[in-house]
Every structure is written in structure tokens, then in C-alpha cells.
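My current task is to audit a protein record that another person submitted. My question to you is simply how this chain folds and whether the C-alpha cells agree. This is what I was given:
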Amino acid sequence: MSKQQSQVTTLALPVAAADSASSASNLIKKYIYHWPLFVLGVILAFTGAYFYLKITNPIYPILATLEFKAPTASSASLTVNQNSTEQQLNPIDKPVIVENEIEVMQSKKLIYQVVNQLELWVNYTQKKRLTTKDLYKETPIHFQFLQLNGVISPKGEKMEISIKDTNSFVYKDAEGISKKYNFSSPIKSAFGTWQLTPTSNIGNYIGSTITINIKDPDLVSDAYQSSIKVALENKDAPFVNLSTSDQVPQRGKDVLNSLMTLYLEFAIEDKNKLSQSTLKFIDNRLGSLKTELDSVEGQMEDYENKHNITDINSQAQIYRELNQDNMKSLNDVDVQLSVLANLEKYANSTQNTERLPAASGLITDPGLITLYQSLSELQLKRETLLATTPEKNPVFVPIDQQIKSLKSQFKDKMQVIKSSLLAQKRQLTAFSTGVKSSLKTVPVEGREYASLQRIQVSKENIYKFMLEKREQVALRYASSVSDSEVVDDAHAGKIKWPIVPAVYGLALILGLALAAFVLFVKENLDDLITSRKQIEDELNVNILGELAYMDTEDQIVVSEGRGKFAIGEQFRVLRTNLFHLHGNSDSGRVTLFTSSISGEGKSFVSSNLAVTLAYASRKTIILEMDLRKPKISINFGLSSEHTGISDYLDNRVSNLNELIRPSGIPGLDVLSCGSILPNPSELLEKDRLDELINALKEIYDDIVIDSPPIHLVTDALIIARVVDASLYVVRQAYTHKYELDFVNDIIEANRFPKFSIVFNGVKRNAFGYSGYGYNYYGYGYSYYNSYSSKEKLTFAEKVKTFMKRFY
């Protein structure tokens, strides 16, 4: 089979390869064929766009800008991370982060206040033909709740009010009952009690109907929260842009301006709260510090009184100086007592020969000094005499007596002085003990007093710091300003939507896409074969030729020479390919035509191919072997009542020449079906069929057999035993795709010799199809029609042809 396929492909006309195009090219061709559908889609889309522009209220972008005197997150670490006590007690000077403030501005809390402040939860509209006008700031009436019953439904509440005059209106309730009310009179509904009051615009709307839409403020706040965008465009510059969009520019501006105003008030209020909280903390702390400071100072006073402390360091110095003076005095007394002891030893001696101890400068008593000097003189005088006079000389008697008398006086005087010195020593010793005791207590008292003093100094320093900080915070609180200011008030830009060119451009795209979608859906939902590729993808078999769709009542469309139908050339190509399929046999070639179901054009193809073979000077006969529903005789304008094949196979007629009739085309004969018998399959199984074909082979070059559809009856399979080649007709947009599975089964069973496909009824433009085609050598229809007269179409035919492009 593959060998046959390669042969035919090689010998096919060059146009077959030239006409092969990509799937994209095929798609474009298909869409171009259906251009009226695309035009219709664009017209419908443009019409929709026109009415959309008429009924759609334009949406305006609303913009505003805030400048912050605070750092962004990228530079905040230089200031914010200072975790000092001074910064903590100075909340006004504490820097804010712009990114954090953006979140505050977008918070539900602020936006909810804006919604309630501007009463955005109630909307007033007026219907004007196809459009609806929003009456923001222009409403003739004002809705006000007197009492709300529960929560407003998520769908909202809708009311229609007809204004009769400046004092009354008509309201239709939920039950459809219309009733007249006066303005400012309370009205009860399912959602609550409310009233309407007229505005200054009431005179312009007398006789008008106003629609009031009431929504849950929470839901309205959520909607505005999602629509308002707050962004820091440049992280190095603290400018924040606020944006939203609205059909009413004034409402959008009011929303952004109110939001900025509330934010600035909130920022100042937040600062004031922090300042008030800080001042309160400082005041409380000052009170507790004052109490603590008074307590410490009282303890210091009691300690000073208890320990007689005025200046503990000075007192310690005095004690040290007293101790030193006392020790000096004590040393002096000890020296004098030592001198007195020596003198007392001298005085107690009975010998006058002892020398008087040296005591010059050590005796301070004047009387004792006088006696000492007298004794010294007598002692010196005696020693002088002793040097020249014996001791026993009477001259020493008066001197000794004087010495003895002075010693007695000296002794008595020393006793008195000694008693005085001993008393003085006891006094100095006692005083020294007291001073030393006082010096020992000084470190303990100093430490205890210093501890109290440190507490007092610490409390006093904190107290002074808190007083200073309180003044600073109070001063800044009195002069606090916001960290941000409005650079640009809210303003409306150019219309954001709808943009006329964009709407029409989108309509153009949608119109084309709609038409393409219709074709796509139609093609995908259609299970019919529309292209050669679908056959080639499913079947491993050769497609011998393609035949264009002909919208004509004539069954014979092939004429001798150049005809007015290009399909004639396609049949000639099929004839040429058939030669190669048969292996260039000269005579006795038997070719079978069959198909899956009725209506695929096998009789049309077999008849015209037989005509084409006859025009090629080949003696040809076509056998009408569809013994159930014959068509060949009718195609050639012959009577269907003539005896034929069934009569021959049933042995009713033995003379074959009586059955064969000329078709009216030179070289082409017709062997009709004959009588319609009830058992055609059994007739075809007889050997008479073999005898018939063999007899015809002796006479004709080509024998063309038109057989019944194989998916309906088995006649074609029975006939296949006597044929040389089998052509299976598949019709575009008629044969179902599932028939290809059946054809595959036939191919695998190998029941038909030299099995090939003929693709019939091809509409190239309608399905974007590229195959062998019929624009041969680039001439197309004009090539053939230039040699023949053109058939003029009626107006109805032209309309019918044109309307086919819509589907």
C-alpha cells in the first residue's frame, strides 16, 4: 500500500505541493471565506459599543497628595531606634514611619467615618431615558433614619419617590401600595423608621421620580476601602499619593479631602493623647518622687540630730587634730614625770655627793626651777671645795645642811608637781580614749550618712529631670502640629473610562473574536470531515484525487475540451492518477466505486470519471451495480426500466449485447441495473458476475463499477473479488469522522485491491482547506471560464450563495 501511495504522490500534478499550506494559512482562508460573519459580528459589536457609550456614565480619576515630615522605612532606623528615656518621655518628637501612616489612612476606621460623614450609604438617582443620573449634591430630597431595625440587608434597600410638590411625595411600599406623604413625616418600613426632607433643589424636580438606594455603611466602607489607593511613589521622597475613581467627580474629591482631613485630625489627636498620657505619668511620678524625697530628707535630719552631725568630714578632722594634741600633751606629761622620777631619786638620796640629774629645759614649774637652780649652785660649790678640801672638813657642814634642807623642799615640791602631772595624765588618757572611740564611729556614720545622701541626691536629680521634661512636653503639647500636610487637594483628571477609541477598538476585537468563536464552536461540534488532513491523520492510505463542490443540477459536469467547470480538470487529474494506480494497464481495467453511506457522490464521481476516460479515447463502460437504488441511468438521461445486470445474473437474459446501451457520449456505454430483485447480494455471489466481468474485459478498456455504500450493505465487498482497483468516496462536510474508523477496518482486512480515497465536494474557502485544489497552475476558474460563456446567476441564487458565507 505504501508503495502505491508513493507512486501516486510522485506523479501528482505540481499544484498539489504548491497548494499545500500551513494550518495558519488554512485558518485565514477559512475565515476570509466567512467574512460576512465577521462583518456582522463587528457591526453588532459596534452597535453594542455605541449604546454602551450612550448609557455608561464616565468614570473620572481623583488624585490628591500629602507630604510627610517623617522618615520613610529606609531612613527611619537613624532616628526611631534611639531607645532613650528622653525620647520615650517625648512622644511628640518621636518620628513616625510613612509606610505605617499609609496603613492608617487606608484603615476601615477612617473610611467608615468618611462614609458616615458624607452619607455615602444613601444614593439618589434619576432615570433619564437610557441613562441614570447620580444626584450627589443635587438631590431634591434628603433621607434620614429615625430608627433602624437591625441591620440593612446586604442587597440594600431601594425606594422610588415621586415628588408631587414642595410639600408632598408619593412612596410605593414593598407591597406595591402607593401612598402620599408629607415631607418630614415619619414613615415605617421593614428596615426602620425614616423621613424625607426637601432640599433647596426641590423646585427643579417636581413631577420627577427619584430612586433612593440605601446600603449597609459597613459594606459601603469596604467598597471604598478597596477602591481608594494610597501609595508612596518614591521611597526616598515622603510624598504620598491618594487616588480613587468615581462617576461623580465632586463626590470623589469630597471623599479624598474628607479622608485627608480626618487623618490630619487623627494624627493631632493621637499626638495629644500621647502627650496627655505622658503629662499624667510625669505628674504622678513627680508626686511619688516628692513623697520619697521628703522621706529621705527626714531620715537624714533624724540621723544628723541623733549623731550630732553637721559636717561629718569636718568633725572627723577635728577628732583627729584633738587626738594628736592630746597625744602630744600626754607625751609632755610623761616626759615631766620621767624627769621628776629622776629628781625624786636624787631628793631621796642621803648622800650629798650624788650629782643633780640634768633637767634644764624640762622643768616648767617656776618654784621647782628655783629650787633646782639653788641645789645646782650648792652642789657645784661643794664639788669645788671638795677638790681642795677634805670632805670631813667642817666647811662642808653648812653646805650639806643647806643641801639637805633644799632637798627636803625640792622633794615636797616635786610631790605636789607629780600629783598634778598624774592627775593631768589621767585626764588626758581619758580624753584620748573618748576621741579614739569617736574616730572609730566616724566611718560607719559616714557610710550610713553617705547612703542616705546618695538616695536623696538620686531622687532629687530625677525630680529635677521630671520637672524639666514636664515643661518641655507641656510646651510642645500647646504648640503641637501634624507630621503631614496637604500638598494637592483632591482634583479630578481626564475621563478614565469609557475611552471612545478603546471601546470601539475592544468592540472590533470582540466582534471578530465572536465570529471566530462561532466558527470554532461550529467546527469543533461538527463531527463531519472537512479537510484532507483529517483523512491523512486517520488513514494510512493514498488520496487519489480531490473534486470541488458543484452547486448544479447537472450530474455530468465533464465536457470535451475546455468546459465552463474547473472540476473537469480535476477529473482529468483523477484519470491520470488512476492510470498510475492500475500500473499503466492498457485494457480490461476494472475500477470499483463505493462509499460509507448514501449521498457521498460515488455515482456522480463514477459517472464523470467514466466520461473523462471516454474523452481520452478509451472504450469505457459503467456498470450500475447498486442493485437497490440505481442512479447511473438517470445521470445519463436513460430509462431505468431497461433490463440489465440483475436480469443477467439471474439468468433471465443471456445475450449481453441486449443489455448494453450507449450513454450518448462517444466511447462510453452503460450497463443498467435492470430489474429490482429482492436478493441482490446472492446474485452478486454467483459465478455469473465473474463471467460478466471477463466478457466485458474483452470488449472495453475501462470498466467502471458503481456499487452500493459499504457501511449499509455488503455488495461492494462481494464485487471486490472481480475488480483491479477500489476507489472509496469521502465527501467533505457530509461524511462523518467516525466513518474513518470503519474505513480503517476495511484497510486492515485488505478486502479491496488497490484501495484509494477520492475526496469529493471540496469547498476550499469555506473550511480554510488546502489540498490538491483546482486553481491549477495559478490560473483558477478564470483560466477555464475565459474559453467558455459564463452562466449568469439569478438574484435568488446570488443571495443564497452569499448567505452560505454566514455559516
Remarks:
- Residues 633 and 639 are 6 Å apart (CA to CA).
- The first helix runs from residue 2 to 11.
- DSSP finds 25 helices and 21 strands in the chain.
- Confidence is low (pLDDT under 50) at residues 1-21, 76-87, 770-791.
